[in-house]
Design brief:
The complex is a heterodimer of chains A (365) and B (446).
Chain A lengths: L1 E5 H12 L13 E7 L2 E7 L3 E8 L1 E4 L1 E6 H8 L6 E7 L2 E5 L4 E5 L17 E5 H11 L14 E7 L2 E7 L3 E8 L6 E7 H11 L5 E6 L3 E6 L2 E6 L18 E6 H14 L5 E7 L4 E8 L3 E12 L3 E6 H8 L6 E6 L6 E5 L2 E8 L5
Antiparallel strand pairs in A: 1-5, 1-7, 2-3, 2-6, 3-4, 4-17, 7-8, 8-9, 10-15, 11-12, 11-14, 12-13, 13-25, 15-16, 16-17, 18-21, 18-23, 19-20, 19-22, 20-21, 23-24, 24-25
Helix pairs in contact in A: 1-2, 3-4, 5-6
Chain B lengths: L3 H15 L2 H8 L3 E6 L2 E6 L2 H22 L5 E6 L47 H12 L8 E4 L6 H15 L5 E5 H13 L3 H9 L3 E5 L8 H16 L3 E6 L11 H7 L3 E4 L5 H14 L6 H10 L4 H17 L6 H13 L7 H12 L3 H5 L5 H16 L5 H7 L5 H17 L1 H14 L1
Helix pairs in contact in B: 1-3, 4-5, 6-7, 10-11, 10-12, 12-13, 14-16, 16-18, 17-18
Classes of the chains: A alpha+beta (365), B alpha/beta (446).
Chain lengths: 365, 446
């Protein structure tokens, strides 16, 4: 194999692929990037067997061939080189890279052992704007559980119905749901994408401005995003039917400015105890919401935010981190907080936008 | 005909030899045969990655090894499946609500668990006094025995009894206030009231109750501020004729780091001890608990349970639950042998490894006889009984087979051993001296 290509483009492609390579895999070849030079393109592949990526880079190919190159060695070298173009050639097991000022020889692995990236047949698919899909995942993925006990809670749910694509995630303490328009017709069944893979998917989607077509079957999902091909395993489990537990009516409704709320939560986190306990008091008489946290070792703080309130006064306890998380997916000016009193879940939404909601359980005190 | 599981295991053994370990571990992990149909083996693999790779790279090897093991295998198909264990799960309606444990069972205002009532409290000679006192307190709260203190070792139903007092009181006088608290919770409340400057609210809250039940008062010992608060609370409630009920793990007079003034106050009303139940009571307890689960167990199983698990009622309940699970899982009725096997596997694991020689030595020492005489062929009375006890304990506690016991104890026949074990077992029922001796020996062997 021998080729020459643009340094910047190769570095970009390798840095994307390296995220998918697994350093401590049972199978050593998984720590490498599979590079294939064919026609007028380089194809880079990496996978951790959970999800995989394929990147195409235009190159001048002198001699076609394949190689499996240790991802972090290659990335480490490329990120510290200069020069416009880089030329690469293999002799036996050794890969020689030459740039303007430096040259390196890297020991490669047997490319024969590198797994094939699964392809999903084009029969079942949906499409949406890449930026929408990225926002969709970003709005909910942080809610997914980190514990491996229930795989369905470790994943992001995607489901499409009547022109809308929704995503939801929960770790059973809080739950977020976001909806964006679906470009394609027809419904999308429940797809459970592992949250870790969803985060990678999101990062790739963010690089694109166009529309993305997502193919899926029972076990696998894949998408072509410009010159990138992404694929991930799907989890075969049932997501809890969360719509059943959404409260239908609320006793108290509070509207606060997002800026105020975010700032208060940020500074409260300084004084929060190890459970991030924040007490949340609705005071209709003074038209204010009081938030306070205290840590016996640090001190305490109370913040008062002006609010529009309908309903009764109440004091509730929450994990401050969970409250703060909710705001990151809200972009409007004001935040609506609805509650049914002590010990019940609260619903946080963007006051002007109904496409997102966040449900958080209170803390037991 | 080998099962599909064995077939695949044998095939894996062969494949492991021809494939490098990393490859084998990565690709053959979690694979299994789903079914075999007309000579086609359907191989379940965990993901599409594995499916593509196995069918492309290892198909020939897999087919060859399967054919070598079973002639009628003609082809192999790969399907993605999570494993034979997977059970389709119902959608649970409530994923959230973790911060709210399903504690409806505990009455929030009184902190009492309604499961504990006097109706499901088994009365025996070991606790009848406590039971009678509880009834008196329920009839005449604040007057009969105030304060009532129940003490005894763990797992004998103290909490059950005092919670039952609270539950009956709540039903008899719904307008009056009952509160159940552990001394631990009381201390925590006090500390958090101190920190938040709400000590007055704390005092008022605890002074409003008509019946205050406090569990495990021995934990108050050594905490000066809390003891003082407790002392004032006690005086206030007692002076206004409110009923107080306490439990402790020992008699108040022997609790260390507890002031005289508190000791004397705790002793002012009625102090009752509960002791470990005797065989008859244990039998009655097991029977009541089994009936509460709507399960009928045969008499010999109940009898075995009552004699195998001594002392603590909680352990007895645990053993019974273990049996009940077995009972639910199997189709036919549970036999005594099954029950023994279940309990043995549960308790046997915890036993420390100890050699026969050590057991003999300990018991010989205990009875003050020569260790060597146990192994001799003598029938002197002072040797015969210890020897029988040794055989009995080796059998019951260490689960050594009858022939082995005979062999180890100087080449005796296994029927001799069986006879000895039966003899000790029978005399245990009537001979309380023997039973206490064996209990002591068991403690020494632990």
């Amino acid at each position: 194999m021998q080729f020459e290509t643009n340094t910047e483009e190769l570095r970009e492609a390798v840095s994307i692929a390296a995220r998918f390579a697994e350093r401590r895999a049972n199978l050593p070849v998984l720590a490498s990037i599979y590079v294939s030079a064919e026609g007028s393109n380089l194809v880079l592949r990496a996978t951790n067997l959970e999800c995989g990526i394929e990147v195409q880079v235009p190159a001048r190919i002198g001699e076609e061939g394949v190689a499996a190159i240790p991802a972090h060695t290659l990335l480490g070298f490329l990120s510290n080189t200069r020069g416009k173009s880089v030329s690469v050639a293999t002799t036996g097991e050794v890969l020689k890279i030459v740039t303007e000022r430096a040259s390196a020889s890297i020991k490669t692995l047997s490319a024969d052992d590198f797994p094939i990236l699964p392809r999903v047949s084009a029969s079942t698919m949906f499409s949406a704007k890449a930026s929408d899909l990225a926002r969709l995942i970003k709005s909910v993925a942080y809610c997914a559980s980190t514990s491996a006990i229930k795989p369905e809670l470790q994943s992001v749910l995607l489901v499409g119905e009547s022109g809308k694509l929704s995503a939801a995630a929960t770790d059973s303490f809080r739950l977020a749901e976001k909806t964006v328009p679906l470009r394609s017709a027809g419904n999308v069944p429940q797809l459970l994408l592992p949250a870790k893979n969803a985060a990678e998917f999101m990062r790739i989607l963010e690089t694109s401005n166009g529309e993305v077509e997502v193919y899926y079957n029972e076990n696998q999902i894949s998408a072509q995003i410009d010159s990138l091909y992404f694929t991930s395993r799907l989890i075969d489990a049932a997501f809890p039917n969360y719509r059943q537990i959404l409260p239908k009516t609320f006793g108290t409704e509070v509207v606060v400015l997002r800026e105020d709320f975010t700032q208060a939560l940020k500074s409260l986190s300084i004084f929060a105890d190890k459970f991030s306990h924040v007490s949340f008091t609705v005071d209709p008489e003074n038209k204010a919401v009081m938030l306070s946290s205290r840590n016996p070792d640090v001190g305490e703080q109370t913040s008062q935010i002006r609010a529009t309130i309908t309903g009764d006064a109440a004091t509730m306890s929450f994990n401050g981190r969970y409250l703060a998380d909710s705001v990151q997916a809200i972009s409007g000016e004001s935040v609506r907080i609805q509650s049914n009193g002590v010990g019940k879940a609260i619903l946080i939404t963007d006051a002007a936008d109904s496409s997102f909601f966040y449900l958080a359980m209170p803390m037991n005190r | 005909m080998t099962t599909t599981k064995e077939l695949w295991e044998n095939a894996l053994v062969e494949l492991e030899l021809t494939i490098s370990p990393p490859n084998f571990n990565t690709w053959f992990k979690d694979t299994h045969i789903v079914r075999v149909e007309d000579g086609t083996v359907f191989l379940g693999v965990p993901s599409q990655f594995a499916r593509d790779w196995l069918s492309r790279k290892f198909h020939k090897d897999i087919l060859r090894s399967l054919r070598g093991l079973s002639e009628n295998v003609r082809s192999v198909e790969y399907i993605i499946s999570r494993g034979p264990k997977k059970v389709p799960e119902e959608v649970r309606p409530i994923p959230t609500a973790p911060s709210e444990l399903p504690l409806e069972a505990v009455h929030s205002k009184t902190n009492l668990n309604p499961r504990f009532t006097l109706n499901n409290f088994v009365v025996g000679s070991f606790n009848e006094l406590a039971h009678a006192a509880a009834q008196a307190v329920i009839r005449k709260p604040g007057i009969a025995y105030n304060p009532l203190l129940v003490y005894g070792p763990t797992g004998l139903g103290k909490t059950h009894l005092i919670q039952a007092i609270g539950n009956h009181f709540r039903i008899n006088a719904p307008d009056r206030k009952v509160f159940y608290v552990t001394s631990e919770k009381f201390s925590m409340d006090y500390v958090s009231a101190l920190q938040t400057n709400k000590i007055q609210a704390f005092k008022e809250r605890y002074r409003q109750y008509d019946l205050l039940i406090m569990d495990d008062v021995q934990f108050l010992a050594g905490r000066d501020k809390i003891k003082e608060e407790f002392f004032h609370l006690f005086n206030f409630l007692h002076d206004s004729n409110k009923q107080l009920v306490f439990t402790s793990d020992q008699h108040p007079n022997v609790i260390q780091n507890l002031e005289e003034r508190i000791k004397s106050r705790l002793s002012a009303g009625m102090i009752i001890s509960v002791t470990p139940p005797d065989h008859q009571s244990r039998l009655a307890i097991v029977r009541t608990k089994a009936a509460a689960h709507n399960v009928v167990l045969s008499d010999d199983i109940l009898d075995y349970l009552a004699s195998a698990i001594e002392g603590n009622v909680r352990e007895l309940e645990g053993a019974l639950n273990l049996l009940l699970i077995q009972f639910e899982m199997r189709e036919g009725p549970l036999t005594l042998t099954d029950a023994k096997a279940v309990l043995r596997s549960a308790s046997g694991a915890a036993k420390k490894a100890i050699s026969v020689g050590e057991v003999v030595k300990t018991i010989a020492n205990f009875y003050g006889i020569e260790e060597a005489s146990i192994y001799e062929k003598t029938r002197r009375k002072e040797v015969v009984r210890p020897r029988q006890v040794i055989m009995f304990l080796l059998r019951e506690d260490f689960h050594i087979s009858f022939p082995t016991i005979g062999d180890k104890l100087g080449g005796r026949d296994h029927t001799t051993v069986i006879h000895s074990c039966e003899k000790v077992k029978n005399s245990l029922r009537s001979d309380s001296v023997l039973s206490s001796e064996i209990n002591q020996i068991r403690l020494m062997l632990k």
